[in-house]
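does this look right to u?? adenosine monophosphate version
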Amino acid sequence: MKALVAVKRVIDYNVKVRVKADNSGVDLSNTKMSINPFDEIAVEEAVRLKEAGVIDEIIVASIGPKESQEQIRAALALGADRGVLVLTDEKPYPLQIAKILKSIAESEATDIILLGKQAIDDDNNQTGQMLAALMGIGQGTFASEVKVEGDKVNVTREIDGGLQTVALDLPAVITTDLRLNEPRYAKLPNIMKAKKKPLDEKTPADFGVDMASKQEIIKVVPPAERKAGITVGSVDELVDKLKNEAKVI
Ligand code: AMP
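got this back:
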């Protein structure tokens, strides 16, 4: 069996986001970039399936600028076997990503296609769902457990107030939630080995996908600044302020 894992290059989740002065987007200059955290969980799950003997090969794909090869190499260091970088300097949108991933998944005949449930930069939560629809295959989104049994996969999904388990025929699309696993750290020898693993470069045109955007970002604004808090001297003072100033009790 083969797995395809989609990894997006995003601003690192520890970095405080700066909005550009003209409100046209987020300032990415001199900013630490990483694999989207949910995609790291997807890579880890694929590696665990390989270690369990379920999967033989893991292909990692990223669509983005040249620098996205850093995130592909990071996934290769975690245990993926080879990478595909689809080069574009345009901002890609979920439908374009899904169309490209569909071509890769079909040409590689992958059985399990793992994506993050959402990319933490644009928060779309659309690509996995669109990919499954375009391919006409089942989807298990927000996965907290994945169990492959023969030509089926059982995916336990995090839903409001509980869990739901669905059985999907393979091939299937799975999107990862936070509790699926805890990704490992890459070991130095594996980081060195990853440099030698194959990494193919393609363009969206190779897949017949037009990157012209059908939407325009009008404005990006940072969250409102929170007012500084105060320290109260006693519980009585706290209760008084809650009662008479904040009027919440
Ligand atoms: P989104 O629908 O944008 O929230 O993204 C959901 C998931 O789709 C991500 O967690 C990735 O697994 C995948 N994805 C989105 N954009 C890209 C990209 N540019 N390259 C590779 N995978 C992507």
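The helical segments are 37-51, 69-78, 94-108, 127-135, 188-194, 235-244. idk if thats expected tbh
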